[in-house]
Amino acid sequence: MRAAVLHEIGQDKLEILDDVEAVGFGPGRVRVRVRATGLCHSDLSAMAGVLPQPAPFVPGHEGAGEILEVGEGVRNLKPGDRVVVCWLPACGACPACKRGQTELCLAGFMNAGTPNFKRPGGDVFGFAGTGTFAEEVVVDAGCAVPIPDDVPFDIAALIGCGVTTGLGAALNTADLEAGSSVAVIGCGGVGISAIQGARLKGAAEIVAVDPVASRRESALRFGATRAVSPDELPDAKQQVTAGEGFDYVFEVVGRSATARTAYENTRRGGTLVIVGAGAMDDFLQLNMFELFFDEKRILPSMYGGGDVLRSYERTIALWRAGRIDLAGLITHRVPLSELNEALDQMRTGTALRTCIEI
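The structure assignment produced for this chain is given below.
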């Protein structure tokens, strides 16, 4: 079958190969025919080595498709079922799951160390234990979440990561108050989803911050009340909050420099939500006095900070009701053969979300 493979960490191009085989099928596992997958910035981060991932590997973790085959013991799925791929499934038995913090379950991360594919030259891993830049993938049954027939595969793919992460940061992690002031730093697909979540919660002012003009224009269409470049953020802070700082600031870039900027633009007693996935050697510096004196809450948001299955259901309900726009997030569509062009579009910021149709 065809799949996109990164041979070594640090390479910026994927090789589209037709000699890849999905492996690992057996009890408790399912084989999924991938129909659509989104390109998420985390895929680029894994390729660059910012996020830990063994190589060679097939990127992609934001996918949807249909069940081809189910292994022994799988009761809730059957061939032909439409599913969204969940890269962070909950095992239901670990301490985090028992506490109701299923987004902190480590079962999915354990899958990342087991090869999902093989080629004549050897084993190939799947990013985040999945690897949806392939025609087929074999995953644990818990990674294949059934979706209703009326949800298109491209929409379902977005729900698999970016939309769930951004919406959840606003609805679950921040649980922001109506009438509040919000700034979102980084307005790709996840940042735009956070903006939509802030709008749903009734934020009075939503300032989108991004260096790319087209993304700022998109942010206004999705609910931001104003959009500024990073250099214009101090003026926006003064105009919107009289210089005090925003009630909520979302950092959706994953870098210490932007996290520091986000902290400085959060008002005393306000809330900073860290959404971007950054590198292990990139440290955010805060002094002990400001932590004590400013009493700002710093809330990391892992995969939207809530129960993933409930978040999927909520997102579908909001989409059906027309309360959120998911189709508008897809600015580009490419076949698997043109995936490298999609990578360049994301690097330059010209794409919010690219749908790879497989």
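Interim note for the steering committee: The CA atoms of residues 168 and 288 lie 29 Å apart. The first strand starts at residue 3 and ends at 5.
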